[in-house]
Amino acid sequence: MSLGPGKYDLETTMVQKETNAQGVILIIIDGKRGSGFSVQATLKVTLAIPGMLRTIADKMEADISTMEVKS
Fold it and tell me: Does residue 17 or residue 1 have the better pLDDT?
């Protein structure tokens, strides 16, 4: 969760500590506890995350649109 503990909070905390990061977003797809996400970040980073994710999504969509579709 972006506020409070999420399903994968322990793993996210471990990554943040190991990397000494100001923020970590962990997205799990079909993991051992199902799909989910967890965020460990400073308030400043947490407030910037929605805009960062929109930028990432836009870039991913642009990259995908240039890929050849293989059947």
Answer: 17
